[in-house]
Amino acid sequence: MPAPLISVRDIGKSFEGTHALSGVDLDIAPGTIHALVGENGAGKSTLGKILAGVYGPDAGTIRLDSREVSFQSPRDALAHGITIVAQEIALVGTRSVIENIYLGSEVHTGPFVRTKRLRRLFDELVADTGIDVPGDALVSGLSIADQQKVEILRALARNADVIVMDEPTARLATHEAEALMSIFDRLRGRGKTIIFVSHFLEEVLSVSDTVTVLRDGKIVDGGKATEFTPGSLIAAMIGRSLESAFPPKAAISQGQPVLSVAALSRAGAFENVSLDVDAGEIVVITGLVGSGRSEVLRSIYGLEPPTSGAITYKGEPAQYRHPRQAIAAGMALIPESRKTEGLFVGFSLVSNVSLPHLPRFSRAGFVRARAAHRSATEQMAAVGVKARSATVEAGLLSGGNQQKILFARSFMADIALLLADEPTRGVDVAAKRQIYDLLVQQAANGTGVLLVSSEMEEVIGLAHKVVVMRQGRVVGQLRGSDIRESAIAELAFGQTTQA
Amino acid sequence: MTLTETENTTLVAPAVHRNVWRSSLTRYGIVWAAAALFVILCLTTPGFFGVPNLRNLLDQQAAVLIVAAPLTLTLIAGQFDVSLSAVYITAPLVGLQVEAATHSIALALAAGVLAGLVCGAFNAFLVVTCRINSFISTLASSYVVAGIGYVVSDRAILTPSDENFRDLAATRILGLTSSTWMAVIVVAVFWIALSSTRYGRYVYATGANGDAARLSGIRTGWIVASTFLLTASAAAFAGLLNASKSMSAQASDDFSFVFGALAAVVVGGTSIAGGAGTVWRTVAGALFIAMMNNGFNLNQVDPIFQRIILGLVILAAVGFDAFSRARRRS
């Protein structure tokens, strides 16, 4: 084994009295992809940010090429050849790709930027790395995946040898993530070192040389990536073995159809979508981001009414023009974006949970606050919300608990159909399992569950039936043992003509 | 409490304990400020604490309070209404023209308030249906409505033909004027509506997160529209009271009325970002400003300086709001 490029000893870091990291020792070999994995809050991002100079450690030493270094800022780290591509993309959207890549390091003569020379440098960089982005395009017009490429090129243009990638694939579709992995591979081939912070375990194992597992701010496991499986990584991350990441699928007897959608279309969003959800059944709509999955849910719920087609709900036609009709009929929607469409972050937990149900808890327009409070706290306890009190602001909770607040809100009424759009996005592994349990329990009680999900494991682990969409159309439906990763991917990417 | 305690208990709890004092200080800050000002004026300013002065002070604030109470709802719903001055001026012109034609005070009142409702409906149409930013649309409608005022009155000073029109605002009941009592009633109605009814919860939800409110089944468009309707009809009613007090109305009346109402809401601490605020805060804000001005007058402070100081007080209130929100976020 070559001498480590970066050698970290006994690093500690606290935020407001909480240990984010303590006693961390880590060696990173040059020219490798080194993954840092762990649950949300395990300290993996903090460690990455310390290596890139974003945070200064409270204790411990960092050696680079056997020399002790202490970075005062990200700029300082970059001078030593280390940089970070942060989770939040920080580019100037209204300017071109080339301008962004060389922002702050323009080649200039006096006050004038030498545009042609920059273009030549850019072309060389693209040829050198094989990362292809149109240089003149405005950054705001690029996809997230392309913006990330711009960030990487920006790092490389500054001669970084070590790139910390903080959750780079969190917002990418599967094929975009795969493309990024091959870029990682190429960069490694050119001698770059990549520190890959992620909680997508299969991705991590597919590309990394070495894996380090963090839990509660400490390193709990590590070694060659080939020695791990997704299962053993999960066990190391959460500190107990999960018999499986998913609850067992309940067999469904031929249930009554709860929802039946026939030839549903909405101009510009989706076309000719037909699907059925039976009582007690979990149906998952999957496909690439932008394939019209969320829009189907929103149409059923009355948020974006369809332009043609028929929805039958509990045996009756149900063309809702507003969500309140859907709620009154016993539907609930858990939206894709918790923060912008789900929660009132400044409101108490009780207010968040009870809001759609106030008509039931009011007399002559006056809210029976005590009854609503009691019912809401019962629901929160039932779904396992962990909070200091029922009156704290929703914005103070962790992602998993915030998501459970939305479940409590949905379950406060007797629902016959639960619509949930990416219900486990941005929640940690343990909370994911709890959310899966809630979905399965709800289905077992006879509720029809219609999910939208991009996570392959989730689709396979939960669905009785999978509906695959591509470009606004349903391209296939899979049941039982037909639900396999390869079959779903083929449909989603359009590699077969089965329809 | 049936919720499970967790390790983040220890994370949050100490901070909360430490802040009990400070949070009640910030939460009721405007009430403390108004109470302190009252005590200071009682002690330092002869003529402040006395039935005639305090009765006048309340009487003068009646119109502002009648409008500021529903305007609090508009701001909480995340909107702005700057057209209220125009409504305040134009509605009584409509009312007095109807009174001149019919010699009925009741019809005059009805016509004036109806004119206000029409203005509110126009604002609601612009904001909800046409989706124009409420600051811009009410600025525009303010010019339209003010112009209509000139048309309605034919640029004349209108006076009511019936002397009894004066009784609308000036009747004494239990020592206070009828306009003061009307302000009390209006404030009480909006206070209760906002704090205890489903409608009030929906107003908060609409302003805090409109998308989430819609998903929760709230007809956010109607909620926003209702705040414009209520505020404009309240402004029309306040204008009628003002006409009753002065027994005249003209299209060139003082156009700064809306600023007084907005200042009361904002000094009270209702966030211009929407989603938070209360009517009692607005009342405290209105009384604070009124006592401040009254104190200045009694102490013969130059009106020019009064304006400068009021401006600084508004800035302090808004700055405090921005500061406390930034702190909460970090």
Report on this structure.
The complex is a heterodimer of chains A (499) and B (330). Chain A starts with 5 loop residues before the first strand and ends in a 6-residue tail after the last helix. Chain A has two domains: 6-238, 3-Layer(aba) Sandwich (Rossmann fold); 257-493, Rossmann fold (3-Layer(aba) Sandwich), CATH 3.40.50.300. The longest helix of chain A has 16 residues, at 174-189. Chain A is 33% helix and 26% strand. In chain A, strand 7 and strand 8 form a beta hairpin. Chain A is of the alpha/beta class. In chain A, the strands form six sheets. Chain A has a six-stranded mixed sheet with strand order 6-9-10-3-11-12, with helices on both faces. Chain A has a six-stranded mixed sheet with strand order 18-21-22-15-23-24, sandwiched between helices. Chain A has a four-stranded antiparallel sheet with strand order 2-1-4-5, covered by helices on one side. Chain B is an all-alpha fold and 330 residues long. Chain B contains 14 helices and two strands; from the N terminus they run H-H-H-H-H-H-H-E-E-H-H-H-H-H-H-H. In chain B, a hairpin with a 2-residue loop joins strand 1 (172-173) and strand 2. In chain B, helix 8 (178-196) crosses helix 9. The radius of gyration of chain B is 21 Å and the shape is globular. Chain B starts with 7 loop residues before the first helix and ends with a helix. The A-B interface holds A 18, 301, 303, 322-324, 326-328, 333, 335, 340-347, 351, 355-356, 358-359, 362, 365-367, 369, 377-378, 380-381, 384-390, 392, 396, 398, 409 and B 1-6, 8-9, 11-13, 196-199, 201-202, 204-205, 208-209, 211-219, 275-276.
